[in-house]
Automatic annotation (TrEMBL):
Acts as an effector of RABF2A and RABF2B. Involved in vacuolar transport of storage proteins. Regulates membrane trafficking to protein storage vacuoles (PSVs). Binds specifically to phosphatidylinositol 3-monophosphate (PtdIns3P). Residues 341-428 form a coiled coil. The lineage of its organism: Eukaryota, Viridiplantae, Streptophyta, Embryophyta, Tracheophyta. It comes from Erythranthe guttata (Yellow monkey flower). InterPro entries: EREX-like, PX_dom, PX_dom_sf. Residues 235-277, 463-502 are annotated as: Disordered. Residues 257-268 have a biased composition (Basic and acidic residues). This is PX domain-containing protein. Its main location: cytoplasm. Residues 235-256 have a biased composition (Polar residues). Keywords: Coiled coil, Cytoplasm, Endosome, Membrane, Protein transport, Transport. It comes from the Eukaryota.
Amino acid sequence: MNLYGLDYSLLDVGFDDPTLIESISSPHRMYRDTRHREIDEEEKNLLKLSSSILREIKSDSTPPKRRHDGLSPLPLGMDWSPPPRNWNGPSTIWPHDFQTGWSYCVTVPSCSIFSESGGSEPVTFYRVQVGLQSPLGVTATREVLRRFSDFLKLSSDLNRSFPKKKLPPAPPKGLLRIKSRAVLEERRCALEDWMTKVLSDMDFSRSAPVACFLELEAAARSSFSESSHQVPNINLCNGDSSSDPLSSHTDGSSSEAFHEKNNTEVHQDCGGSSKSCESVEASDTLASSDLQFPNEALVFLPMEEQQKIKRVKDLESELESTKTSGEESLKQAIFLETERFTNLQRDMEELGRKYGEMEDEKTSLVKENEALRQESDSAKEQLKNLQKFHEESDLKSKSVIKFLSGKVKSLRISQSALQQELDRVTKERTLSEVTTTHNGSDNVTKITDDEWRKMVRDAVISNAIPRKRGNSRMRYDLNTTDDDSPDSSGTVEDDISSRKKL
């Protein structure tokens, strides 16, 4: 069993002999139902199975010491070989003995620029030419188109598959997208040298990522398919032995001729990643083989090999349907993603507009808050000044009230004294009048009355002078106007004149 879970030989090809089809149709129906249930799972676990087989091979057997030792897990047990210097079609001479087994080589002869639909930038594809040589020395070639990113992905896959081995560094990726012929030619040469260095290692050349990248299985299958069209007279029948050397199945020699297709299938292989796979068909004429079989050659095909051939055809049809459904799903997913991105972009524009409006509102609110803050600061300053003035006024009023209360007390004391003096004078006058009445002398009474009036007037005047001084002092302390002084003095003088009249 090889890397892909199939046991290939020279007879594992799609011959169109009716006898073969009738012989394998009946037993094939018995396995058809169970096979369909296993196809999807086998395709998903292909790389996992190949890795496990490689680990089992490494653990159960010693590593190969040389190429073409029959231990290669690649289709037909092929091994890498340096490419020939000159290509001469089917009779190309390779730098090794072709009888050792199947060989393949890799070159990057040219590159092409394809323009994709939709007006996008052109894409550069490098033509990777895979040459196959049979044990009979017949050479066939097949080309696949690969982008530069595919080479970088191959490098990363090899690093993951062989973490302990040192892989040659891949050509660097340019910072600028320069599509000049000189740059493309330089990169093509660098990629070809890098592929040669990578395939020079036996483990790398026999790995699954390299086989998927070069599509070695498709190359071998297409070669056998073309050879079956070129040799329609070969009779296929069931048997156990044959005297013809070409019909021996156990001797390991090949008896098939190659003829490569005129149309080369170009695939951009994803290698199990999440990227989409594209198919690009290029009409390039490849080398073919002219070797023919004798008409009387007999080839025996065991039942197991017949079932494998039928299984390969079914897998191919299932793979095509899977690719078609995958492309449709990918297109639908791309459409949905594009629509979602458009809606998201529209929402982002709407949010940007609302954000601008909110920024303008925020700026106006900030200005208003700044104006209100300034007004609040000025109001606080005024309130502070008013509080200070109020405190000063309270202090001044308290001092004035204290002073006035003292003056009122002094005036009340003087008033009581004057009242006592007036009472005393009144009593004395009453006594004098009584005395005068008793004496009966009018002259004496008149004189006495005049004296009493003079005494009272003098007392009132003597009491009015301190009162006037006290009023003047009070007006001065209360910061009254000077116009009030004549009024007060006039009041005092009126009081004095009234007392004089008495």
